[in-house]
Design a protein that fits this description.
alpha+beta, Butyryl-CoA Dehydrogenase, subunit A, domain 3, Nuclear Transport Factor 2, Chain: A, six-stranded mixed β-sheet, 11 helices
């Protein structure tokens, strides 16, 4: 038991705020592993801190998590320059099978995390802290080491980038679920004609193998080409068994091989129901934390 006034006096309070701590770290880093490391660091920091004068403990914890994530993010940007092939965020299960509670909104979707990956680290921190978690700009400035005005400008630039990515209307949740149901049946049946119908003519296929497993190291573009590659990979790898799941708050598909999870596909689907992108995570390091039964 910690001394009076310290955070760890109540485990219930930590359990209440832990999802927000994990949530800010995952949105900033795009990796479950790093986010979990941040959660552990924040817990150790909070357990030894005198919190008696802190009125908003959630905001304090989120800010501490953001500061630690910012340090990791800057070094991660350097590592990603040498990453083998395309980079995709680690799949975060957010449905009933989720092991990690997280505050779910559009900002944890694969599409949004890829947009945020294009931001500078300061822009990403300013946007996530202020626009997603409502942290005032004077506190954001404390994390970034600048002024509230500078933090406001960073968030504004990030907001414009995010808004530009939303210009093309996307499918509603029921429509996405319908499309993936049809896609799943066509994929399992090897129905090339149906797959081509589901894919936009300019559809993009992105595979993240990280150099750990065979995967395309460049984007594959074109509905027919994407359909052919999906079919070819399914046959070559003897993939069998596709299960629906939820990743980043959106419908996704988990594909199995010999009863073991082999990959997770997330999708970008237009308002007309055509698939704009298939984003496939194959890197075993990014799937290690996922617990899904076939």
């Amino acid at each position: 038991m910690s001394a009076p006034g310290t955070f760890a006096a109540t485990d219930e309070e930590w359990a209440e705020h832990r999802p927000a701590v994990f949530g800010v770290a995952y949105r900033l880093l795009g990796t479950v592993t790093d986010a979990e490391d941040v959660v552990q660091d924040v817990w150790l920091r909070a357990a030894g801190a005198d919190m008696s004068g802190v009125e908003d403990r959630r905001a304090w914890l989120v800010t501490v998590a953001a500061r630690r994530s910012y340090d990791i993010l800057r070094s991660a940007r350097v590592r990603r320059e040498t990453y083998v092939g395309p980079w995709l965020p680690e799949p975060l299960l957010t449905g009933p099978d989720a092991a990690e509670p997280v505050l779910v909104d559009e900002s944890v979707s694969t599409a949004m995390l890829l947009v945020m990956e294009e931001l500078t680290p300061p822009e990403r921190v300013a946007f996530v802290l202020h626009d997603v978690f409502g942290v005032p700009f004077d506190e954001v400035a404390g994390v970034l080491g600048n002024t509230p005005a500078a933090s406001r400008q960073l968030a504004s630039r990030a907001r414009r980038r995010v808004a530009a990515s939303r210009e093309r209307p996307r499918a509603t949740r029921p429509e996405r679920e319908r499309v993936l149901t049809v896609f799943r049946a066509a994929y399992e049946a090897g129905d090339l004609e149906q797959l081509v119908k589901l894919l936009h003519p300019d559809a993009v296929y992105v595979t993240d193998g990280g150099g750990k497993i065979s995967a395309a190291r460049k984007l594959i573009v074109g509905g027919e080409r994407v359909a052919e590659v999906l079919n070819r990979v399914r046959r070559r790898w003897a993939l069998a068994g596709v299960a629906p799941c939820e990743v980043g708050g959106e419908p996704a598909l988990a594909v199995f091989r010999d009863g073991e999870l082999s990959l997770i596909d997330t999708f970008d689907i237009a308002a007309d129901g055509r698939i704009l992108a298939v984003q496939r995570v194959l890197n075993p390091d990014k799937l290690a934390h996922v617990r899904l039964a076939r």
